[in-house]
Amino acid sequence: MVFAGASPGGRRPASALVWLIPPAAMAACAAFAVTVVSAGARATVAWCGAAATLAVALAAAESARRGRLIGRLRARAAEQDAAYRQRLVDQEVETRRLAQEVLPAAVERLQRGAEVDAVMKTIEPSPVLDPDFESAHRAVLRTVLETVRAEEDLRDAAGRAFVNIARRVQAITHQQAMDMRDMEDKHGAAPEVYHDLLHLDHGNALIGRLADSISVLGGSRPGRQWRNPVPLYNVLRGAMSRILEYRRVDLHSVADVGIVGPSVEPLIHALAELLDNATRYSPPKTRVHLTAVEVQSGVAVEIEDAGVGLSEESRRRTEYVLEQAGTGFDLDDLGETPRLGLAVVGRLAVKYRFQVSLRPSAYGGVRAVLVVPQDVICPTPAPGGAIARAQKLPPPKPIKRAEPYPPLPTNANATGPVAHDHNGIRHNTAGLPQRRRRMPTVTPPIRIQADPEPAPAGPPAPAEPPVQPGMWLAAFTKAVSGEEDPVDTSGHPHGAEPSDTPHAWDNAVDNASDKGE
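^ thats the sequence. predicted structure below, dont judge the formating
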């Protein structure tokens, strides 16, 4: 019995000899009947037997013919079934190849700048597919490529818009930084105003870093460009100056090497983002340790914090974010609360070949390691550009109040202010040049007499103590707490030089590098 829907190829057709059995059996029965009947009925039985045998023979012949026809139909159906099965297998293979090989390669060429028509011409038709299915494949492929091209155009437009906005913000912050430097030079004699300006300058630097991050995510470079090499020590200090919690960062031993100019700003920005993450996601009273050592492949900059530990799943997810950030920027990836730090580090790492890895630190937090490649490292620049010695910062020393200078002998007719030239150049312990401000000193009024006697020569003025490392931290802390700083006779607050503050350090490096150009 054959059920509906069953394959007809399961039964074989009967042989032609099988169909001879029914007529032969009928003829034998008729002959036997003729022999057993009476003589008068034999003729009738014989004719009836012959007719029955003929009928059975005709039925057997028709059955044999139909059996052969059914056999041919079954063979043809089996061939068609095999062909349909092979066609289905070929279509499945080609569809899988389209999804796994052809489409990714076409999208990659499209992302490199090729047009849709040019990409479609490079795709050869499959020889195993029928024309209808092949045309359907190519139609689907063209639709996908056109959709990807539209998305790429939208992404490029969004990236250009982000870069334009970032450039505007960078221009505003740069102009504001220049204005604040002029104000710092103008109001340097007033410690309260001066330190408030430093605080505003630091906030302006944070805004500039955010604008640089947006520019990097948009596919552009960071704002600044450096021509000459810069010591690694200054690069690390520049990164510290661009975060909010710079006081919590301890700078330890630093390799005595330099960084070539084109890689200075990307390295500063990447380290600033890692330092910002370390200080932001660790307890406020803990320290963040920053070191830089030479390794076989370059220089390894290590940042360790004592914050929340990094699980294996979190580490894999973070490394995935760093890897995906290098492929492109998508607005949908930011979410409602954008976290730009790792995305920016990933973009810079891919573009400038930095190696970034995250591991658990010895303090229970996260240990971020950024390896600078060997080809962007150079010997420490000679004096004339930005130079500093890599050393650990000692704790701030107490500041002694300077003794006032004795009045200077003046002419009897001189009653106006006498300007003392403080425009000499001196260097701090880090090797950076510092500019001495020119401040007018008002001489005390002298009574005019007929025969004025020369004023006795007073003791020599005490030598100005050298600026100690860490003076910027003490001065800046006092400015934030509102404590009054002692002022020397030249009108400068101790430890209040522009290059002695964390955010002004970056400006000092910039100025020193410009001199080296």
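Residues 13-110 form one domain.
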